[in-house]
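Report of the visiting student (M.T.), summer placement. My assignment was to run the structure pipeline on a short list of targets and document each run. The first record concerns Amidohydrolase.
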Amino acid sequence: MTVLDDDILKMMTGWRHDLHAHPETAFTEIRTGDLVAAQLAADGYAVHRGLGQTGVVGTLSTGSGPVIGLRADMDALFIEEKGDLPYASRIAGKMHACGHDGHTVMLLGAARQLARRRNFQGTIHVIFQPAEENEGGGRRMIEDGLFDLFPCSEIFGLHNWPALPLGSFAINGSTMMAAFDTFEITVTGRGCHGAMPETGIDPIVVAAQIVLGLQTVVSRRVSPLEKAVLSVTQIHGGDTWNVIPDSVVLRGTVRCMSPEVQRDIEGLLRGLSQSIAAAHGAVADVVYEHRYPATINASASADKAARAAEEVVGRSSVTTDCPPSMASEDFGYMLQRLPGAYIFMGVGDDGHRAALHNPIYDFNDGALATGAAFWVRLVERVLPG
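After the run finished, the structure tokens were exported:
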């Protein structure tokens, strides 16, 4: 079912390639915001800038009726792009490796189509969010008054998913993505000559024991009926071959689905780290940060999103019981404040198999029309004219 004008689709492809060539990371999405704001203003939207530092919100009303929010993220990642795309990143060390260029453009194209058709009754706020990658731009927009200035009855989000085939969608009526926490453990011992380890307290050995001990948290201390991941992703310590350092730093991430498991894992991580260090005469200082909450759909909102997707790609191409992902999204903050839903859209085909956050990833332009059409149908379904 095509609901997108041909000229809009052509513009979307151009916008997407331009944004891909000029990636902007967390809270620096100025050029991206300029493009978004200019196009929204040209289409008759009231435009507000500055929430979450670089966020953009466009508002369009067609009279009295419900008010809903549609959200897209704008930021890129600190990854050096590989490959030979004609529109490859021109910014060293930065690229759109998660498809936020596509997310921005699909919502922007839908906004233009909705402004032309005006086949809905109510108000839409199109929310272009900065800093989804690690920095919590969604939380920052909320703290800056997003839902006070732009109250909504429901909020919806969409993310491209290379593991799903192009022309498909997947959603469920509960938890879509995991909570995201980070930790840093500084193990302090007593440095010494590498040839005389008995004269010091080796923090490298202690850190190794902590890494192994932490592997028992999920495997032996969390119920197998729960979903959780604890990964140590960094080890830093020492700077030469013959000196045992004073300290070692471990960093990593925790993903889980429930606040109770999140609380338990934090306590276990602290207790194990400190006890193992103490047993060796060292000290472990633990900094544990709760980053993003789980992304939890409201069942009624998820059903609306699924029905809209079915109208675009057909019922057989929409999965309504997809398993949750252990990846995370700061859209979870918005779903803590409002009922709403987050949906995955397939972008995988023979030319687009690279995973998200991969240096050769490129958003599939073949999905632009589908994503924009989804937004249009969702608005017209939730706010019937």
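The chain has a mean pLDDT of 97. The longest helix spans residues 259-279. I thank the supervising group for their guidance throughout the placement.
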